[in-house]
Amino acid sequence: YSRIMDSLMAPYKPTAPVYEKYSQVKRLFGEMDVRILIIDEIHHLIAGGLTKQREFRNALKSLSNEAKVSIVASGIEEAYNAFNADPQMSSRFVPIEMPSWTPGRQLGTLLKTLEHRTPLRQPSGLHRPEMMQAIYVRSESTLGDIFDLVKTAAVEAIRSGKEAITEQQLAELDWVPPSKRRTYRRQL
Question: Which of these, 128, 109, 121, lies nearest to 170 by C-alpha position?
Fold first, then answer.
């Protein structure tokens, strides 16, 4: 409830009991006519023991029922498994798998948008087929890693004074793709 109030920029007493925070969130949702609560990376919120997970799932059920709020949650497979462990939750949430990005018009549009949002002084042409392919291969086609790769490349482009992301820079960038991160984790 604290995170919800933080995102709504609502004042609250951090030491207040959970039921008071819940009442405040419910009241705020009513006042603001909130219809949908979107929770990104829900797998971070359900981390912890089974008791904490159950408390969190119950909180979502209460918000959904009493505040009449639809809940959209996104996360990785562990989140799906935690929700699926509760029969009521598995009937409330319909899982939809997000497909990986592939080179084409949609990825080009995403990359063009990302490029416009970087503070680079020179155009990089991230949407061009060869740049799109380089980003696709390095990021392994996951949205979060596409964002991270472009951000890291933009920072490096600014540091180097080039003010544009290049194919060569992408190839030489000190950036670890997702599959290698999993390998590193196992080696540690």
Answer: 128
Give the integer Cα–Cα distance in Å for 70 and 29: 12
Whether residue 149 contacts residue 138, with contact meaning beta carbons closer than 8 Å, is answered with yes
The CA-based diameter of the chain, rounded to the nearest angstrom, is 55
User: What residues contact 172, with CB distance under 8 A and at least 6 apart?
Assistant: none
Record the pTM.
0.62
> CATH 1.20.1070: does it fit domain 105-184?
no
How confident is the model over 44-63, as pLDDT tens digits? 777 778 888 788 888 888 98
Neighbours of 168 (CB within 10 A): 10
Instruction: Give the count of beta carbons closer than 10 Å to the beta carbon of residue 13.
Output: 10
Alpha carbons 84 and 78: distance in angstroms, whole number: 10
